[in-house]
Amino acid sequence: MVLQVRGVVLPEREERSFWIDGDRLRTEPVRGAELVVDGGWLLPGLVDAHTHPGTEDRAVPFGDQVLRRHLVAHRDAGVLLVRTPGSAARIPGWVDEDPELPRVRSAGRWLATPGRFFPGFGRDVDEADLARAAVEEAQASSGWCKVVADWRFDQPALPLEVLRAVVTAVHAVGGKVAAHCQTADGCRNAVEAGVDSLEHGMHLDPGLLDLMAAQGTALVPTLSVFGAGADRMRAAEPSARRDWWLAGWAGMLPTVRAAHEAGVTLLAGTDSFPCGTVGSEVEWLVRAGLPAEIALGAASWAARDWLGLPGLVEGAPADLVAYDADPTLDPSVLAHPSRIILRGRIIA
């Protein structure tokens, strides 16, 4: 059965009709199609560019049942594409074969050198073997790998020359590198090494933003998870770590705004549970000073394009979410999709 949808397409703000034939969008009318969306606003599916489905607790092993539950939660919220920058285990192949689950761009296991992650939770590797391991994870996943470039505020970040070797090796096989960074040195080393995405970016020096824009390093600030912990950290006993964290948080929103003004690609990622809450990250991006349409694009069409998928155009995958109200006027609308279509199938 051919389906028809009609509404105002974002970001173009043009009223259009699409016909869904199988798992593709078509612009040529099909007689007798079933009209399943008639009015409202159409987006090419939401995107969470930083999520870790499959495990919620370091004490519980990565599992298929939890992975499916997390991905279904994303899907039911209209998140039809996710990027997993690191996980406790590689995302299994059945995920890509299941038409009822969101599309996944995975980065294999977290790559952690000694002292820079939870022991045994990712793939523990010495600095000398990191480039080789990064290539292995990128080739075993969706072309991405994830390196923990720093960890504790009072310990050294991963050396610049090590990160450069990782980026060179992974780029040589057509892959991309995501880097966890929360210290000034970690951020600087990752940017100067030429990583493809900077995850979190706490304590990121705004002086690096022009270089990020020029070389195409995206920033995934995960503001919502930091914002959720801010009051708890303020209430904590005074300590060097507390002061460091609060200083970093105080600079994150202004840095995100400056990153946008510098032309850095910004992407929405939650890094938290429950899954399916990327709308809250859009709200945080707006709070940081991004125009509403840019913030929404960071969780939809711009993020899809960055991950290699088109928006709502002829021949594109039939992934879309419809809303009764304009989400650029009120991001809270994102929590209430009126229709979700994934791979040409009506989900809700």
From TrEMBL:
Coiled coil (UniProt feature): none
Keyword match Hydrolase: yes
SUPFAM superfamilies: Metallo-dependent hydrolases
Positions of the Amidohydrolase-related domain: 42-336
Protein name as annotated: Imidazolonepropionase-like amidohydrolase
Naturally occurring in which organism (per UniProt): Kitasatospora viridis
Sorted UniProt keywords: Hydrolase
Matching Pfam families: Amidohydro_1
The organism's place on the tree of life at top rank: Bacteria
InterPro entries named in the record: Amidohydro-rel, Metal-dep_hydrolase_composite, Metal_Hydrolase, Metallo-dep_Hydrolase
Any one GO molecular-function label of the UniProt entry: hydrolase activity, acting on carbon-nitrogen (but not peptide) bonds
